[in-house]
Specification:
Strand order of the largest sheet: 1-2
Largest sheet: 2 strands, antiparallel
Radius of gyration: 20 Å
Distance between the termini: 26 Å
Structural class: mainly alpha
Strand content: under 5%
Mean pLDDT: 86
Number of helices: 11
Oligomer: single chain
Low-confidence stretches: none
Number of strands: 2
Shape: globular
Number of domains: 1
Order of helices and strands: HHEEHHHHHHHHH
Length: 268
């Protein structure tokens, strides 16, 4: 029965998303326009040069263009509405109804996000793959370390999911977590390598980025896809991903237990 419910929940969520085809078109255009801006900025920063020295790495303009493309692809796959979804359910009281459904709260959230990921892949990722080839040529598909990249990307998606799940669960204690979501988004854009590779970050910010988990979301998979990460960096990155995933999973479990108890005490 549970597997049947999970399949039904994913299909139902997917159908509701397909009703917003205009949003999908706007999303594609926004991603394409953003990619064009990034490429133009990097061309301007290189100022006619083909290679720049970034720390111990030599980074070509072609590498940076492909970095921007891979980062755009990754953002389409990784982005989710987990925090907003959890916040809406908790603040509206819908979470009380979620308790009586045949699967747990976490599974319900995961089903909704799985449908969102499938929708994004079909209606944003694949069209952007075609558009990117038009913008920068077939070189965009010359990805290295494909097998490892798939594993690291899956871990990146899970890590980002758990971070947002944690933020969403804070709705048990705060009226809204929207400001926290905005702060998190800004920090991740700066320290994850989503927009600027860590190669180009100044010393202090670079050190902070290497300590925090955000680089494991964008910088690590994109570096692997470009062939800019050696074997030790790949292995170390995988181990760090697993460690942070376990840590955030435990934090989410703790927050859910305390939040659930708080809701029960209040009569929810």
């Amino acid at each position: 029965m549970r597997m049947g419910y999970i399949g039904y929940a994913i299909r139902n969520s997917f159908r509701s998303l397909t009703a917003y085809r205009t949003f999908a078109v706007v999303s594609i255009l926004s991603s394409a326009f953003g990619l064009m801006i990034q490429i133009a900025i990097w061309k301007a920063l290189y100022n006619g040069q083909n290679i720049l020295q970034a720390g111990t790495k030599q980074v070509s303009l072609a590498d940076m263009i492909q970095y921007a493309v891979l980062s755009t692809f990754l953002s389409i796959l990784i982005n989710n509405n987990v925090a907003a979804n959890i916040e809406q359910r908790i603040t509206s009281g819908q979470v009380s109804i979620d308790f009586i459904r045949p699967v747990g709260f976490g599974v319900q959230i995961t089903c909704a996000e799985a449908a969102g990921t499938i929708f994004q892949f079909l209606f944003s990722f694949l069209p952007m793959a075609v558009i990117s080839q038009v913008l920068v040529g077939k070189s965009v598909l010359e990805i290295k370390n494909g097998g490892v990249l798939l594993i690291v990307t899956a871990n990146s998606m899970l890590l980002y999911y758990l971070i947002n799940y944690m933020i969403g669960l804070l709705s048990f204690w705060f009226l809204t977590v929207w400001p926290l979501r905005q702060i998190l988004d800004g920090v991740i854009k700066l320290l994850s390598g989503a927009v600027i590779p860590l190669w180009f970050l100044p010393g202090g910010i670079y050190k902070a980025a290497t300590v925090l988990p955000f680089r494991l979301i964008y910088y690590l998979p994109v570096s692997i896809g470009l062939g800019k990460a050696d074997r030790s960096e790949i292995l170390g990155g995988l181990l760090f991903q697993i460690g942070w995933i376990a840590a955030f999973a435990l934090i989410c479990m703790g927050l859910w237990k305390k939040g659930n108890g708080k809701l029960t005490v209040q009569g929810g």
